[in-house]
Amino acid sequence: MENFAIYVPRLLPQEENLAPGHRACIGCGEVLAVRLVCKALGRRVIVSNATGCMEIVSSPYPTTSWRVPWMHTLFENTAATASGMEAGLKALNRKGKKAITAKVVAMAGDGGTSDIGLQALSGALERGHNFLFVCYDNEAYMNTGIQRSSATPFGASTTTSPAGKLSIGQTSRKKDLTAIVVAHRIPYVATACPSYPFDLINKVEKAAAIQGPAYLQVLSPCPTGWRHPSDLAVRMGRLAVETGVFPLYEVENGKYKLNLDLPKLRPVMDYLKPQGRFRHLPAEEVERIQEQVTADYEELKKKAGVGA
């Protein structure tokens, strides 16, 4: 195994900066991820949150689950809003108004990151703003009815890429957004999943300490959209990693590091079978997905210098 640190237990803050009582679905993997991210960040943050599941469930007027400064922004301009926050803090400090050290954090789903929000994100990364962007990746527009996004994997059935006699569901592969972000040559990029909480928290802390832009892609199992039992969210995240569908790695200043290199990957069928969105796939398409996952994982290992 490449790195045992992923399993090292540690004491976490008892303070909950995302309060209970929100309206997330039972078994929501995304709200678990947000809770862990908020624990790792602490209170000295300002959050820019895109329209999406977490905005809807956490802020139904007149209540809120946020115990840190928080702003709801639109799908398309989360990174732009965060850029303005960061620039404003710099201006205040430059003028000697007040010493402000809060970290600016942008949060969005895969739709608000890889689709609608990609232009603003790319611009913010290119300009080098000192902020952290967290994408909670549940692989579709779950909040508005399970429509496909560019993060929806090949073969998945959604309401806008339905499986049927003439279609196997989503016909294009999932956009490799982490590779797009790495191409901006920012200091820190990483993948994470709440099913591996200590790995996620360590990466959030590392990303928050970066001077400059940092990005986290957090796989967030969704029982409603993935159509798996609500008590399997954590297990689904682990299966995604164990099969190589969603490997855990980080890229620091262009250098890849594979955080968990298993001696042997599980068959992708172990991950696909519990999910209703893949139930329709014939054996030949499952084999096609297996070949894609194996090839992508081997390419990642080469980048990380593992097994060379």
Structure description:
This protein has helices spanning 29-41, 53-58, 78-94, 110-115, 118-127, 177-182, 197-209, 223-226, 233-242, 269-272, 283-304; strands spanning 45-50, 70-73, 103-109, 131-137, 163-164, 167-168, 188-192, 214-219, 249-252, 255-258. The two termini are 15 Å apart. It is globular, with a radius of gyration of 19 Å. The strands form 2 sheets. The protein has an 8-stranded mixed beta sheet with strand order 2-1-3-4-8-7-9-10, with helices on both faces. It has 308 residues and is α/β, with parallel strands linked by helices. Strand 9 and strand 10 (255-258) form a beta hairpin. The longest helix is centred in the last third of the chain and has 22 residues, at 283-304. The chain is built from 11 helices and 10 strands.
Widest sheet: strand ordering? 2-1-3-4-8-7-9-10
**Estimated structural class:** alpha/beta
Number of strands: 10
Mean pLDDT: 94
Q: What's the SSE pattern?
A: HEHEHEHHEEEHEHEHHEEHH
3D shape: globular
List the helices and strands and how they pair.
Layout: H1 29-41, E1 45-50, H2 53-58, E2 70-73, H3 78-94, E3 103-109, H4 110-115, H5 118-127, E4 131-137, E5 163-164, E6 167-168, H6 177-182, E7 188-192, H7 197-209, E8 214-219, H8 223-226, H9 233-242, E9 249-252, E10 255-258, H10 269-272, H11 283-304
Parallel strand pairs: 1-2, 1-3, 3-4, 4-8, 7-8
Antiparallel strand pairs: 5-6, 7-9, 9-10
